[in-house]
Amino acid sequence: MSALEIRSLAVTYRSDRGDVPAVRGVDLTIEPGETVGLAGESGCGKSTIAGAVLKLLPKGSEVTGQVLLGGEDVYAMKPGRLRAVRWTSAAIVFQGALHSLNPVHRIGAQVAEAVELHGATAADARRRAAELLERVGIPSGRLRSYPHQLSGGQRQRVLIALALACDPALLIADEPTTALDVMVQAQVLELLAELQRDRGLSLLFITHDLSVLASTCERLAVMYAGQIVEHGPSSVVLSAPEHPYTAALARAFPTIGDPASRMNPSGLRGDPPDPSALPTGCSFHPRCDVALPSCGDLAVRLQPAGRARAAACVHVGSGIVKGAS
Length: 325
Hints:
The protein is α/β, with parallel strands linked by helices. The chain has ten helices and twelve strands. The protein has helices at 46-53, 79-85, 97-100, 107-116, 122-135, 152-163, 182-199, 210-216, 234-239, 244-251; strands at residues 4-15, 18-30, 35-39, 62-69, 72-73, 90-93, 170-174, 202-206, 219-224, 227-233, 303-304, 310-311. The strands form two sheets. Strands 6-7-8-3-9-10-12-11 form an eight-stranded mixed β-sheet, with helices on both faces. The chain has a four-stranded antiparallel β-sheet with strand order 2-1-4-5, with helices on one face. Strand 7 (170-174), helix 7 and strand 8 form a beta-alpha-beta unit. Helix 4 packs parallel to helix 6, helix 5 (122-135) packs across helix 6 and helix 6 (152-163) packs parallel to helix 7 (182-199). It is globular.
């Protein structure tokens, strides 16, 4: 049984200016112990998917489709069952630790609260909090520290400890290395990989940084304008993309040891579309260097693009995308 199965997920935000389709018909599966990356520019719907998995979206959001955790539909759960599933079946490491932690409560109390709410005594919850902080590399003596007394990397480790409080089967890491320097980022990534191996966690890793996903994930899904436009084994998707957006996104990152790549003019031009006013046909065609006249009218669905991979492009299998400039 899959750790997470998302079927035809669509999320629409209601606003005074009209409906905003943030996620449009996404399918995604994560197997037990598997690490899957979700990539794309800001505003493409990655964090909306993270919130939808545990029904944490703002009030007024319209959600259709299914989100199955261990085979059980989150959106068919009663409130009591949903509270029991959060933190135990799945948990989220949010981006922006300083804004995610309560500034007026000590970090030990915040970690212990999640454990206590799931049936532990206050004493056991405190012991568990100390163990978790030690596990993520923070001395248990810092239990009484406030978030502002910790460094950015330490706060991010506290969020990881908090997410692990009830031994979830699935961990969703939503931009966990945002605003961290390179050295601290590497330490956090190493910690997540170690925890994933030791605990057999399933991991959904969300970020815009393809270099991070290439080194941490077995499979990669690339999102654009609320849809997955390509997915498959990470190494293959990045080395031989079948969708022009994936290729352009990969070129936007400089190559270590290649000074010329820092000013690569063939990267990703333009801006993502406004979700409330999406282009007709393929959403990427206004920014695409290999678009055909029909791309403005034809919305291509994901189609096979090799072994265990798929892409939503008219050029799949043609070799044209690799040479896109």
